Amino acid sequence: MQIAIVGLGLLGGSFALGLKAKHNNYRFIGVDYSAEHAAKALSLHLVDEVLPLEEAVKKSDLIVLAIPVNAISRLISPILDFLPENATLVDLGSTKELICKAAHKHPKRGKFVAAHPIAGTEYSGPEAAFASLLMNKTMIICDKEASDAASLKLVEQVCQDLEMHLRYMDSAAHDLHLAYVSHLSHISSFALGITVLDKEKDEKHIFDMAGSGFSSTVRLAKSSPQMWGPIFTQNKKNVSEALDSYIKQLQSFKDIIDKDDEEKGKELMLKANDIRRILG
Amino acid sequence: MQIAIVGLGLLGGSFALGLKAKHNNYRFIGVDYSAEHAAKALSLHLVDEVLPLEEAVKKSDLIVLAIPVNAISRLISPILDFLPENATLVDLGSTKELICKAAHKHPKRGKFVAAHPIAGTEYSGPEAAFASLLMNKTMIICDKEASDAASLKLVEQVCQDLEMHLRYMDSAAHDLHLAYVSHLSHISSFALGITVLDKEKDEKHIFDMAGSGFSSTVRLAKSSPQMWGPIFTQNKKNVSEALDSYIKQLQSFKDIIDKDDEEKGKELMLKANDIRRILG
């Protein structure tokens, strides 16, 4: 099988490395608008060769889009236009509703599978890729009834090769839930990073006084703006609503602290403790 | 040396275990208002015997307060009242200004050392204790000029035995910085936990769709309300100010998303990325 990886960053690179580990006869063609990333991906053996997009697509059985979600939305229709007869296109974007809409009316919609792997780190670029990133992670496939049986089956098989757990969901429901369990966490972390950096001009204090709790809550503030900006834009309505609820909760905490209402504060924290049931 | 550990939870228990590992001739007396915790601490060999507070203090060379900060504030003066001639009292509370104030005018103030170990986990109780919790962590000693040389030296020696890194700071500065690099993280996490639990009635979605980013940002929501309520109250002014800045940052993100201002959003995220320099 010949596979085109469009976007040679953490996710695209890890996808290729994970599959290579299972199938040493698969061939990987890389596509990246950054010549530097492309060269790096070749030298790290993430892919076997690098080609321009159209050429790569035309030579491949499976095309994997591992680029920011706005680029996925923009490229999906042109790529479907020149997709070979028996090839399949899959995207790995973190939003799904607008991406599915972008493919919706295309005559080759069936060749497209909308997928979202729940996997990542706060690092990005080809150097961040590693073969086990996707292993044991969840792959959410959206609006599967819009994909042809053969294309769906191919993507499912690839996910099984990567030892991923498959889940199926409507693209609108996907975006709503992800706003809460992923996108909101990222904004909470970005905002925390800025708040603390703004205050702590003498950064030595941060090093010495910040414990593992701070590192844990602020870790996602290292995430890529190029990747996350378009996610927030594409999932604007849900993310804005989630942020609204979050700000209200924080305001409740502030009011409780300002009023010395320790009992009410403990009630709220006990409610939050309920997350133990879920996270273990 | 005979050491009284007042509060047989994660911190008190770990303090005892860590020192025991270095000095098998030290004797530990436990104090806990919960008979269940006391029994558990004995059975886990965190301490060698359990006694009522006054009795334990009177038999000890070093008394360690590992209880919620409101209880520390309340007990510090009565304990100093019956502290033996050559004994030293140290507290491990997460706030320092009000605690130092509570000891300020006591004739035996010099026997007291105000300390804060930057260490902890989201778990609590005697079962959560482990010998290496404090190893390689920072111990901040506050207002050290108010402590007698001998008492300060004893506490510094114990910290060195525990392989901790010593730092010194004014108690008011401590509380201001901790509001940003610790207390705010906890509130951000508690509020995130509640926001997501409120929305996701069908919790199966959380299990399947939440990645490691969510776990990381929400981890502190498992923290003990009994411990954290009094910290927020004692550090009210600073925590309220930090929360105010944090809410403003989140509101900026929301406005940017609502207005589709991706450029401004990327600017903010790039600013947050600067945390990489600090966290590595």
Automatic annotation (TrEMBL), chains A, B:
Residues 1-280 form the Prephenate/arogenate dehydrogenase domain. The keyword Oxidoreductase applies. GO terms for molecular function: prephenate dehydrogenase (NAD+) activity. It comes from the Bacteria. SUPFAM superfamilies: 6-phosphogluconate dehydrogenase C-terminal domain-like, NAD(P)-binding Rossmann-fold domains. The keyword Oxidoreductase applies. InterPro entries: 6-PGluconate_DH-like_C_sf (IPR008927), NAD(P)-bd_dom_sf (IPR036291), PDH_C (IPR046825), PDH_N (IPR046826), Preph/Arog_dehydrog (IPR050812), Prephen_DH (IPR003099). Pfam families: PDH_C, PDH_N. Gene3D superfamilies: 6-phosphogluconate dehydrogenase C-terminal like domain (1.10.3660.10), NAD(P)-binding Rossmann-like Domain (3.40.50.720). Keywords: Oxidoreductase. Its EC number is 1.3.1.12. NCBIfam families: PRK08507.1 (NF006307). This is Prephenate dehydrogenase. It comes from Pontibacter silvestris.
